[in-house]
Specification:
The protein is α+β, with helices and mostly antiparallel strands. The protein has helices spanning about 1-10, 15-35, 45-55, 60-80, 85-105, 115-130, 140-150, 155-170, 175-200, 215-225, 250-265; strands at about 205-210, 230-235, 240-250, 270-275.
Length: about 290
């Protein structure tokens, strides 16, 4: 329980959130300035718009354009989105802009477009995932998506898909097809890596234990494992006997220990394990945007 309380305090810590946003911003800057822009790639969201404007106008830098395009979105978000969420997000955007001046024209020496798309996608997804693990985000369309979701219940995934579809459609008039395809590979890899990074922090094991010794097992879990359990009442369809069903959430480290504990009490218990992507509330850390 002490570990869960510590994780919750750490997740709400201002300095911890700023550290993650700073690391994510640095990776995002390296991705855009050192890989994506030198190869003419197009990212998704407002970052993609910033890259497109930079390619077409040949002025400023992609990340400066990104900061300029995000500014009016943040003004709107101030009134419709949680202010703490918005301030953290604005900090992340500011960091990417500042880092871009330090990195300058430094490029990652990749001559093959496919390799560059893979590296850019991995960096972009990792950066986005780290920043979304804070009380803020990477900015851009994240702010618009949250605002539309809270005001009109527009699905975030649906909005991002339509926005990126229009963006790549507009880019197809001026960009080579090879670059468009490479950019799509980059965006696909970025989405996959982002989901992996988010899941890496939150992946847990959902365990269901069906036994006639539910009370004894639950007491043992509370004493030895220090995490909670919920008991449900059930009945065997064939035998008609009453059974206790224990529901608990654990991690990979404690899973085998929990299994040994259950079968040491009831060798005939049914032990069911499922992967769960996200756990929030109770004794686990809960993300709040306000």
């Amino acid at each position: 329980m002490a570990l869960y309380s510590y994780n919750r305090r750490l997740g709400d810590s201002v300095w911890w959130n700023l550290l993650l946003l700073t690391i994510g911003s640095l990776l995002m800057t390296v991705c855009i300035n050192s890989v994506a822009a030198p190869h003419g790639f197009l990212a998704g969201g407002v970052m993609g718009v910033a890259l497109l404007v930079n390619y077409w106008t040949q002025t400023l830098t992609p990340l400066v354009w990104y900061a300029l395009l995000c500014a009016p979105l943040y003004v709107m978000g101030w009134f419709f989105v949680g202010r703490r969420f918005l301030l953290y997000t604005a900090y992340g955007t500011l960091c990417t802009t500042v880092f871009s001046f330090f990195i300058g024209d430094l490029t990652v020496p990749l001559s093959t477009e496919l390799y560059a798309a893979v590296v850019a996608g991995a960096l972009h997804g990792t950066a986005g995932g780290i920043m979304l693990r804070t009380l803020g985000s990477g900015g851009g369309t994240d702010v618009v998506a949250v605002m539309l979701k809270s005001r009109w219940n527009v699905p975030i995934g649906q909005f991002n898909f339509i926005f990126n579809l229009l963006l790549f459609g507009a880019a197809a008039w001026r960009m080579q097809l090879d670059i468009i395809v490479a950019s799509m590979i980059m965006v696909f890899i970025s989405s996959s890596v982002l989901e992996y990074v988010l899941g890496m922090f939150n992946r847990r094991k959902l365990v269901m234990i069906i036994s006639g010794h539910g009370e004894e097992i639950s007491e043992a879990i509370l004493v030895t494992e220090r995490f909670g359990a919920t008991m449900l009442r059930g009945k065997g369809a064939y035998s008609g006997l009453d059974r206790e069903i224990l529901l608990t959430v654990t991690n990979n480290v404690a899973l085998k220990r929990l299994e040994n504990l259950v079968f040491s009490i009831d060798p005939h218990a049914l032990f069911i394990v499922e992967n769960t992507f996200y756990v929030s509330g109770g004794q686990f850390a809960r993300r709040s945007d306000r």
